[in-house]
Amino acid sequence: AGSGLTIAGTTMTAAPSFVIGSFTRDISTASGTQDVTGLGITPRLLLFLTGGLGTTGGPSLSLGLDDGTNMGVVENDSGSSTTMDFKTRTTASIYISVSGGVYAGEVTALASGQFTVTWTKTSSPTGTATIVYLAVA
Question: Which residues pair with 21 in a beta bridge?
């Protein structure tokens, strides 16, 4: 949120420079786009965090960055319920790996108050993912 700055008796309120939020995605849905709106800022950089979906494939975790052009994610391969095999990828900023497949996303548009994620589905993942984001203006 913004903060007030007082100069010579006048208080000026600065616009927020970042927003924390979340959105969901049904990962059984076909590849496509999703607009995330209502940010209140024009994002220039996004940080994404996703967690496990409770599947039998084991835990799932990813942490990614995206500026609409450059992206990367550190994610674990959830092929085992007892190990966490982390990988780095430069083809997505959101990577959801579950026993039924993979659901990966990248930011393809940044605009006033919103961003667009383009999703790619591989195989047959199921469940609803919650993605937490930090959007920086």
Answer: 133
CA 119 – CA 69 distance, rounded (Å): 15
Cα–Cα distance, 82 to 45 (Å, whole number):
33
pLDDT along the chain (137 residues), means of 10: 54 75 95 97 96 58 93 75 69 87 94 98 91 96
Q: How far apart are CA 74 and CA 31, in angstroms?
A: 21
What is the reported pLDDT for 1?
A: 44
CA distance linking residue 77 with residue 132, whole number of Å = 20
Cα 36 to Cα 2, 22, 28, 57, 127: the distances in Å are 21, 9, 19, 28, 19
